[in-house]
């Protein structure tokens, strides 16, 4: 897993090594092999992003009120489900935050599922990718908290009673700082475990049995994307809630 160069990574290294190295130099990062700076999980992230962009470009070109196609029906169901979850978890303004949480869901889901395709790997099996998604969630919900509540957002950390502040502040800070780690480990560990189980049974068996475990891998991919989205909504809901609520 990740020790060989995938064909898409090889393609990027053959034709786009210089831009990648320039970006790394800009941030003072040194690639293990400067001649081939692209690594598999970064290449897979880019491929997932490209697939999503192309898919939604095709979907946009086929949108129809009178004769919606199967693809439109599918993503309308996905959106309605996400909106329902946001309304239930965040509240009456929840649909304002569907764009962010829903985008994370789509990216994580596609990132999980791409590993089912031969010659590809799930970028979510590599810790930096779940960590990046988790940090995006952490930054967004805190920014939204300050945007919605201003300085009153700090009361989420200090508690409602002033004399409890010395006790509540460190507890809340540790709790919030642990959230990115929790999101990262949950997604990363489950995807690595699912991949290893699938590979083991693919090596030991043939035909029907591997299909079962690949189906399980798809199910785990869907569940982990859903959990990531729900936890993101929970964190946003807690941050934007007003004190009187």
Q: What is the compact description of this entry?
A:
With 245 residues, this protein is mostly helical. It has helices at residues 7-15, 17-26, 40-61, 70-89, 98-113, 128-149, 155-158, 165-204, 208-240.
SSE succession = HHHHHHHHH
> Measured on Cα atoms, how large is the radius of gyration?
21 Å
SS-derived structural category:
mainly alpha
The shape is globular
Number of helices: 9
Please give the alpha-carbon distance between the first and last residues. Answer: 47 Å
Instruction: Give a quick account of the main beta sheet: strands, pairing sense, barrel closure.
Output: none
What is the helical fraction, as a range of percent?
over 70%
* Whole-number total of structural domains: 2
Average residue pLDDT: 90
DSSP, total strands:
0
Uncertain segments are none
Percentage of β-strand residues:
under 5%
